[in-house]
Every structure is written in structure tokens, then in C-alpha cells.
Amino acid sequence: MSDTTDDFDSNDFDSDDDDFRFDGPDDPFGHLPPPGDSPLQPGKILLQRFLLRSPFKESGQSTVWAAWDLDIKRFVVLKFGHTRLTEEALLAAKMFGAVISLYEYNTTIPDNPFLVLEFALGGPISDLAKAWSDNPALLIEKFIPVIGTLADAHALGWYHCDLKPTNILLWKKPPDSPDGIMPKLPDPSDIDPSEFKMKVADWGLASGEGDDESGYGGTPGFAAPEQWIQRASPAADLFGLAATLYFLVTGKHVMPPTREFAAQLCDKKAVYTPPDPVHEINLKVGRRLSRIIQKSLQTDPKQRHRSAHDLAQELDHWLHGYSISEDSSTLRVGLWIRRNSLITLLLVLMLGVGVWGGVSEVRNARNRAEIAEKEFRIFQAKSLTREVEEKLIIFELNTTARATSTELTAAARAAARRGDWQNALKLFEQVIKINPAIATQLRVERLFGYFAINDENSLESELKALEAEENLGHLAAEVKLVHGAFMMCDTSRADEGRKLITESLELRKQIPDSERDELFPPADALYAEALLNTRPRPMIEKLKEAVKADSLHFPAHSALVIALLASGDPEAAARQADELARRFPESSVPAFVLATKAMIDERDRVKMRAGLDEFSKQACGKKAGADANRLFNYFDLFANVLDLLEEYYDNDGNLSLIQSLELKLKLREMRMSGAASLSPFAFPVPTVNMFVAWNQTNFEVIQQAISMSARNKGNIDEIGKKLTNLAKDYPEATIHTALVANRITGGTIAVMEDNPEESRQRMLETADVAYRAAKQPTLIPRSPAKYKAQFIGAIADIAILKLMPDALPLHIHRVQDGLPILIAEGRKKSLSKQRDAGVEITIRFMFSDPPNRIKAAWKLNTPAGKEAYRLRNRQLFVIGRNLLESWAEEVLMGPEKENKAIQTKIKEMRVGLEKWAKEKGVMDILIEEAPMPRLK
Questions:
Q1: Residues 349 and 363 sit within 8 Å (Cβ to Cβ)
Q2: pTM for the complete prediction?
């Protein structure tokens, strides 16, 4: 590990080795003289538009120049020569937030396109490493928007893959040019660090979901250790962010920043271990911040923060004096007192102003508030949060008789935009009393606020009053939407509610373009479109768009949480619920998610009951006793169904007659009691009825899927079509794994019938379906269904290698990388039986021979064909032998070591594999290759 910032040498990041994909830093202030034969020279005008100013440091993949745009009169950055320039342009155009903007993708120069990018005045953040190490709070304040941008990218399915100090730039608007002449740039070192913003740059190595060609490697010292041996993931980006923070506050790398060490990671000859904690190196960093950074530097990606949003939230809580996830209860109380003492003083001062009144008193109170604010800044060593400042302003307006209607309206709308509906509704009420001219519009604007504060009676009363008015005009569209959403809380009126929502969207089209977004915001339109969907996937996508358009749209946010939960993705629902709780602390939706997740993940009836009781009190108050009992009974039925479905998978897809009857009975009871059990909570948790309806459908679809026999060739394709249609709408993994079983059966039949084209196509499809199935969420977390799907994916890949001489390297890499992970996962008691069966089938499949017509594709009548066939069998033998020995080692070290039947089976399979290897002429490598490493 390097000891000083002097070791941070950009030359470490450049490589001509094709095994690495390194991208050098785009450093606007590390000017180098241009190469003598370069067509790009300072002072040259490119395309009669771009006046080249100076080159940045070059990397092995791109050439980057600072330039002055003579047409638009602004500084820009030109990036040439990147092998993935088109992909980078397409991705950069989608990014938003704290990101270097893409102005255009210029293809005017033949065979040499270039990007025109936003100019960052301050250069890379590493140029101010001393400032950040001296003032960690300022660094974190500037860095949080960067993490938010990565969170948005992850939500779109994209990962940066190359986060490091030189790819995060310091942005400040360059000086203007009134006369059109290129102005002189200030020296960045003369600018106060607090004046800069941080922006993410260089998406050249970015990788997306489903992209198997990119996402490997990166920059030594900053790329996550797993990124050298497998595709990047959100967890890898979190590592890059944490490694960057670590370097900036300590001057040290988290691991050796050399190609040699990266190569050792690739070959699994080196192991990464987390570095010393930050607070032990930089005494200006406290233990709490140190713990946050250290968490995302863990070796195991699962032990890092769950998402970029979680990392940003933890840092934001630390920055503003709130508790973080690992704080003790005592520390949490202490932080609360410290955070609120002076705020309370300010509120008392302002309350005094409201009682005694007078213009002079208002001025004096404001002066006192300013003094108190300065004292608070000194006390906290940072500014008040924007939220606190806005609350103080609202409080002052609320208690000052001289506040104008315009001021109160602005304050009300600001509070609503921030999600503070308690204050917003009070302020709306004041404006409505003193300004009848805009009263109707404000009454419509506040309608969704009643959902957020769980005031069903006020909403119902207001809707009746508004609908009784004769001249609502264009406001009628919004009123119909809210009324429709309100009616959908009642299952008996859901269809009527959807009809109103449809009418509202039609009325929205009649609103003039200039007023439409104000009277009927885009987020409301997306929410309306979501409610018209009855299928999970499209509804979830629309709700995600609505929340993205307005993160403080409570009904859309709440509906998204419940939709994710109902679709079989409790982990995603919990993450979304955390976000909802942060923005709407009084909502009972997160409590509902926690109680449900406890039941799904742990099947702990006691914990489930406690969670449901807490949720009931939040949602309905003290009178919720009987309602809570009905709710608990429904969840108890839910848990019983999950238990039966798990038994189905534990018993290799078999239920006894009694269990089958019990499953049908429990599903019937769920259907009868679901809506009634949750109806008291339908308004506090909007669209909670969807949870009942979707789960009931989900279970029935699962029952239908697992009962579909795929063994009859006559109906296999018909069953496959039904399962495919189900999988399109329902993300539940159980449905997808049933489709996997259907596909592998069809592929196996095609092989047995010696049908080359059909067998190849079916096995390719099987592999695709299997790997996708393994990624699906599930309501049955302890089920081995997803585990089996991964094994079937490996078997399909092996089949492809046997069937296709021109098989892609992807298939062999997936088998080599995936099987050790499957063996390690099989240590779980619930999976060991499936592991043993999976290994046996996989190995027997390896040393089987395809029929003659299929074998003919290898052209065994030619020397080249024979050698290709021998080499492929050699690869398969190495994989099979390593798999067998790794499995044997797991058995010997596990609880099955005394199982004579398994020991006998291992010996039989070893003999069979070696016999096949002798026949194929590949026994010469028996001693050459080492077995798979045993994953810890």
C-alpha cells in the first residue's frame, strides 16, 4: 500500500496489455506537450469551430483536449480516439445530476469521431487532496451528490466501473466572454474549495445489465477486487467511491495500485484485505465517518452498503449530526439533543415574535435568529441543513401577521415540495382564508397531502365540496385523479376509481400546453397511468417513473413500495421503504414492509405479530385491536402457504395428498379473508389492496406453474408458452424456474432425438432463461428453486459446448466461474441435497457423448475437426474433474462425511469420468491442472 500521495501516479493506470482495460485520467490541468506527429496542436482551429487550447494527460484509450468553442463562446473538452466512444456517448446522454454533461457527439471527421464535453474548471478532485484531508466534512458535503448520481445510474441499470479521484472533477462555471474573446481562466488553486461542485466524468468503461462484454477490470488501486474476475455491479461502484474517499482523506490507496497486483487478483494469486481504518491514519476523521467508508471497502460485496442511496444517506446523516446505522442507542440520544437544542431556541424566539408582533420586533427577532444561526454554525462546524432553514422560515411566516398571501403561498408550496405536508396544509389553509381568488386551485393542490398525513375524513369532505362546484374548469382533471385513487383504496369501488382516472387523463389532454404541467404535474400523470395497470411489471415501471419525476409524491412512492413487496421483491421494497421513511417520517408504510419482510424472510410469528401490532397502531391508532387480529390471521395464512411451497421444493417437487389439499384450503382462506383483513388499512397504505390481490394471484400462478408437467413431448411447447406469458408479468422466481425446467426438458428431448439445429437452439434458450431465473426475486427465499436454476444454466452451457464447435467463450467462463460458487452455496443445509444432485447430473452430462448427427458438426473425419473435438473434451474434463474433487472435499469437510452412499457415488463418478477421458485421449492432463479453489 502506498504511503504518500506522491505514489498516486497516473502512469500506474495506463496499460497496453489486452488483459486489462485501464483508462487514464482526463486531467484538465496536467498539461503535456503534444506529440510531434500529432495533427492536434495548440492554437489549431478544428472544423472552423474548436480552438484547441492544451492537451490533457493522454491515456492508452483516448486523447483529450481543452478547447474554446468559437460558435457558442464557451470552454469545452474534446475527447478523441476512445474504442467505446459511441457507447460512452449514448450512455453520457442518459446521465443527469452531478455529471459532466455531453454537449454533442461529433462525427464530422471521418474515422475519428469525438465527444464535446462540459469543461471542469478545477480539474480532478485529487488536486485538492490536502483541502479534503483537512476538512472531511466539506469533502462529504461535496461528494454526496456524486453518490446520488451513481444511484440514479444504477437505477437505470448502468455501472460506472472506473470510479477514482481523476474521474471526479471539480466544476465551477468558467468566466463569461462578453466580447466573444476567449477569457483568461483563473488558477484553480486561488479558488476556495467550497465554491466547487463535484461531477462524475468518463463513462468509457461503463457497463449495463445484460452486457457481458464490458464491466471487467478498471484502475488498479480503485477497482473492486471482484471486478478483476467477474463483471462489475453496483457493489463494485460503491467500492470505487469508498476507495476514492479513502485516498482523499488519507493519501493512501486501499490496495497496491499496480498492474502486477491486479494481475495477481485476476489469477487469484493475491487476496485483497480491507485497509487500516481512516481514523487511525487521519486524526481529523472521527470513528463514525471512518466506519461508513470502511463498510464499502469490505471484501465481500454483500457486506458493503446495500446501495449507493444507502451510502449517500449514511454520509448525509453523519454530515448533519443524525445517527447512522451502527450508532449505539446512547449516541443516538446524544446526537438528537445536540442537534435540536439551538433549533428549539430559535423556535422559541420566533414564537415570541408572533405573540408580541410589531415590525421592529420582527427585525430584532431576525437579528437574534442570525446570531443564533452563526453560533449554531460554529457549534456544528457546518451550515444548517436546508430543511431546517426552510422550517424556520415557514414558522416565522406562520406566526407573523404581516406575511403576505404571496409569501404564504410560496412557503406552502415549498413545504409541499419538500414533503412537509403538516406545515404545508396549515399554510394552504391560511392563504385560502385571505385570498379567495386562488382558493380553489390551492384546495386542489393540497388534495394529495391528505394521503401523506393519513387524514381520510378531510380528503373525502374536500372532494365532495370541490365536485359540487360548478366552475372547476381544467382543475377537474386533477380532482378526478385524486378521487379515483381514493376510490381504489376500496376493492369494491376499484373499477369505478379506474374509470375516473381514465377520465382525468382525457381531461388532462384538453389543458393548454402552457398550463398542463402546473395544473396536472407529470408525476401525477405517470401515477394515474400506473393505477390503470393491473399487472405487476408495467405498474412498477410507471411508478418508478413517477417517483423519479417527483420523489416526494407520497401516493406514488407508497404504491411503489407495496407493488415491489407484492411482486415478490421484499428486498427492493425495503430499500424503497427506507427512502419513504426518510422523506415521510410519519408514514406507516415502512412498518408494514418490515412486518411483512420479517414474515417472508424469517417466518417468525412472534416478530411478525409485534411488527403488525406496531403498524396497526401507526395506521389506525389505539382502536386497531380487532383489526390487528384479523391482519395477523391473514399473515399467518400467508406464512403457512410459504411453508408448504418450501416443502414442495425441499421434497424435489412433491407434496403429499394431504399437503396438496392443505395448500388449496389455505389459498382459499387467503382469498376469502384478504380484502376484509386489510380494508381498515387501505387508506393509510394506499394500494395495499394490491398486496392482497397480487399475492393471491402470485400463489395461484405458482401453483399452476409447478403443476405443469413438462415431461410429455406433446404438450411441452404449449406449457412453455403459458409459462413464458406468466413470466412476462410476474417476476416471482418460482415461475421462472418452472420455465427453466420446461426448457431443459425440451432441450434434452431434442438431443436424444439427434436433432442438431433444434437441440442447439433449445439449449441456448435454456441457458438464457436459467441465468435470468436465478436473478429473479422470490417470496419463498429459502426455496432451492433459484439454486437449481443456476445448476441447469451450467448444464445448458456444457451442452452448448458439446453441441457447438463455435460456442462463445462466454459459456466456458460461466461454467468455470459459476460452479465453485454453487459448490460453496451448497454448504447450506437447505441446499446440500440439491447440490449433490446437481453435481451428479452435471458430471454425468459431461462424460456423455452426443448422438451421431449432432457429433457430425465437429467434422471428425478431418484432422482439424478431431483436434478441435479433443481440445473441447479436454476443457470439459478439467472442469468436470475439478468439480468432482471440489465436491468430494466439501463432502469430507461437511456433515455428510460419514455418508457411505455419497462416498461410493463419488468413487463411481471418478471412475466413469476417467474412463471417458481415456476414450477421448485427454488423460494426459490428469495431474497438470489444479482443482477449483475452495471458496471460503
A1: no
A2: 0.53
